[in-house]
């Protein structure tokens, strides 16, 4: 959450910083600010609202500089307003700082600083940090030492960038639990919380690890630990292309990303299908296959949409590999003293690879001796670096805050992992080959579903006035019901709940009337007749029903008002197909309501705070 971008070089940094903030705005859009050094003075401009508000104000003030840092905020401490926006400054406005993360002991630090006569004007934990650094500067320390001393007193997470008018030839960055990357240019350097902000200017980057910091100059950088030990950092090449993070001809990133799913899903299994062996090949798990297959238990941890993917993974692994599998909310995992042993394999799923709760849970599982695997989308992310082995989903950049293509790619990767270990245990060659063949056909079937876009849009237009929704599915499609409800909540602000269809009778049916639409996921599988019975129960209470059904289902059309027909596939892969109409349904309802689907209120793409 929140976005940081910075520049030091010979060019005017203002356009670079504004452009970078726009590319990071999906990480937070409550307020934005920019701080520069001009003629030996610090100048800070901050605005409530989106980056465009800051851009307009910066243009009015007609400022320029070759040194600056900027920030777009997702509010944690303090309401979204101009005072709480970053950068924050010291008493004399010589020191300025932007910060991602949370300072957990900020109240203790604030009281101590207040006793030393430091005054505070915002409600943020970040202002405490900048005043703490100031207190060490006032004791005669240079900037780097002052930052080190301050961070050694801080509890919590941070990704920071610091500028200081008395040392205008450098900016300081440091990281713990919140991502920071240095972009290497020619006579200029950049910093950011996400490579998306840098790729227009350089493909050469350096990722900071937790507990590391750097002094960044125009022509070099010097990396060290917070304890002041010098370290050597490897410069890496980023292959991300600029057009991958552009909307192109689409109105919204979310729609673009939904429509990209035939390609993103194919990229997730490209080169990984072994047709003759009826298995999969995952380079990131090479050497660990037998250990995973011998696991006494598999534990999958994730948050949000990734947690829903994990639930589908649980069904897959237990059905085909026969290994007991549990799914945990990463945010709860390390706070309940979980039983984890060296015989367990723990899989951690995160689209960004930076989810704070998931990263913390991963470290706890590793500490307890389990084999730790990561599934993520972002190359070089913290979870990718922290895990012992893992698999990239290769979905491509996902800018829309509500995850779509990352979810279906996560399902593909979970299927690939399932096949890999199941073939080493109990899955026959014939059954493995069938799964591989069906997986290879999924992109074409997604294309068929996307051709229903206008039809789904027409259905969505009928429900923009709804206040509540119920999503119902069974087996593999129960997690899809949860995910469909989440998508609607995230972008349309309509209250929605997902349930196993059979659980409807145990409470939720009390909500049903002619104003309460229900979405049923009803592929013709082993529980089809049971779900049809649930549909009859809703009909008897005047509920409106939207059904996701197979193309050749002749029965469903006579039972429900609205039917979205999709191709068939095997049960374990059906969630990849059934989730896509629900993405489009949520998207079109939100658009019809005039809402910002890419930047829904109160949300941010990468949740880097607990």
Overview of this structure, please?
By secondary structure, the protein is of the alpha/beta class. The protein is built from 18 helices and 26 strands. The chain has an 8-stranded antiparallel sheet with strand order 3-2-4-1-10-9-11-14, covered by helices on one side. A 6-stranded antiparallel sheet has the order 5-6-7-8-12-13, covered by helices on one side. A hairpin with a 4-residue loop joins strand 9 and strand 10 (189-192). The longest helix has 22 residues, at 429-450. 56% of the residues are buried.
Topology summary:
Layout: E1 3-8, H1 13-24, E2 31-38, E3 41-48, H2 51-61, E4 67-73, E5 88-89, E6 95-100, H3 106-115, H4 125-137, H5 143-151, E7 158-164, E8 171-176, E9 181-184, E10 189-192, E11 204-207, E12 212-216, E13 221-225, E14 236-237, H6 253-259, H7 261-269, E15 273-274, E16 279-280, H8 289-293, E17 297-302, H9 304-320, E18 325-329, H10 330-333, E19 344-350, H11 356-367, E20 371-376, H12 382-386, E21 389-392, H13 405-422, H14 429-450, H15 453-461, E22 468-473, H16 478-492, E23 495-500, E24 518-522, H17 528-539, E25 545-550, E26 562-566, H18 574-592
Parallel strand pairs: 17-18, 17-19, 19-20, 20-21, 22-23, 22-24, 24-25, 25-26
Antiparallel strand pairs: 1-4, 1-10, 2-3, 2-4, 5-6, 6-7, 7-8, 8-12, 9-10, 9-11, 11-14, 12-13, 15-16
Helix pairs in contact: 1-2, 3-4, 4-5, 7-13, 7-14, 9-13, 9-16, 13-18, 14-18, 15-18, 16-18
């Amino acid at each position: 959450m929140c976005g940081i971008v910075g520049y030091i070089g010979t060019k005017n940094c203002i356009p670079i910083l504004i452009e970078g903030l726009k590319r990071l705005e999906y990480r937070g859009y409550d307020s934005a600010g920019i701080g520069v050094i001009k003629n030996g003075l610090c100048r800070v401009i901050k605005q409530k609202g989106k980056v465009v508000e800051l851009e307009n104000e910066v243009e009015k003030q007609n400022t320029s500089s070759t040194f600056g840092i900027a920030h777009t905020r997702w509010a944690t401490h303090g309401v979204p307003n101009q005072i709480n926006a970053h950068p924050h400054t010291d008493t004399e406005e010589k020191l300025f700082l932007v910060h991602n993360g949370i300072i957990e002991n900020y109240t203790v630090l604030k009281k101590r600083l207040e006793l030393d006569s430091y005054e505070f004007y915002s409600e943020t934990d970040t202002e405490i940090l900048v005043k703490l650094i100031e207190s060490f500067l006032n004791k005669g320390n240079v900037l780097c030492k002052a930052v080190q001393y301050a961070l050694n007193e801080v509890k919590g997470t941070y990704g920071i960038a610091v500028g200081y008018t008395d040392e205008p030839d450098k900016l300081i960055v440091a990281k713990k639990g919140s991502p920071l990357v240095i972009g290497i240019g020619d006579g200029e350097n950049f910093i950011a919380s996400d490579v998306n902000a840098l790729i227009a200017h350089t493909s050469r980057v350096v990722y900071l690890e937790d507990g590391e910091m750097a002094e960044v100059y125009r022509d070099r950088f010097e990396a060290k630990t917070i304890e002041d030990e010098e370290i050597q950092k490897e410069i890496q090449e980023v292959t991300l292309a600029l057009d991958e993070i552009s909307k192109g001809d689409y109105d919204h990133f979310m729609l673009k990303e939904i429509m990209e799913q035939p390609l993103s899903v194919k990229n997730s299994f490209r080169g990984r299908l072994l047709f003759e062996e009826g298995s999969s090949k995952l380079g990131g798990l090479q050497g660990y296959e037998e250990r995973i297959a011998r696991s006494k238990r598999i534990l999958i941890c994730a948050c949000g949409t990734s947690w829903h993917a994990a639930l589908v993974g649980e069904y897959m692994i237990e059905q085909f590999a026969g290994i007991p599998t549990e799914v945990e909310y990463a945010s709860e995992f390390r706070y309940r003293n979980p039983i984890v042993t060296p015989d367990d394999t723990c899989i951690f799923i995160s689209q960004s690879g930076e989810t704070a709760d998931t990263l913390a849970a991963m470290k706890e599982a590793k500490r307890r001796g389990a084999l730790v695997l990561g599934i993520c989308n972002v190359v070089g992310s913290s979870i990718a670096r922290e895990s012992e082995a893992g698999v990239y989903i290769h979905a491509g950049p996902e800018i829309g805050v509500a995850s779509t293509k990352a979810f279906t790619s996560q399902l593909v990767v979970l299927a690939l992992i399932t096949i890999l270990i199941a073939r080493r245990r109990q899955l026959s060659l014939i059954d493995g080959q069938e799964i591989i063949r069906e997986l290879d056909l999924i992109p074409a079937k997604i294309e068929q579903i996307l051709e229903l876009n206008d039809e789904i849009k027409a259905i969505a237009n009928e429900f923009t006035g709804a206040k509540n929704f119920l999503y119902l599915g069974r087996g593999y499609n129960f997690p899809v019901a949860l995910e469909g409800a989440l998508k609607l909540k995230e972008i349309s602000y309509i209250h929605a709940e997902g349930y196993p269809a059979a659980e409807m009778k145990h409470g939720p049916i009390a909500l049903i009337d002619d104003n309460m639409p229900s979405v049923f996921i009803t592929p013709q599988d082993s529980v089809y007749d049971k779900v049809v019975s649930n549909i009859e129960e809703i009909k008897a209470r005047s509920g409106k029903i939207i059904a996701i059904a197979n193309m050749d289902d002749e029965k469903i059309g006579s039972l429900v008002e609205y039917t979205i027909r999709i191709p068939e596939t095997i049960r374990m892969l059906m969630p990849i197909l059934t989730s896509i109409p629900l993405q489009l349904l949520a998207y079109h309802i939100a658009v019809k309501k005039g809402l910002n689907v890419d930047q829904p209120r109160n949300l941010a793409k990468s949740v880097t705070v607990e």
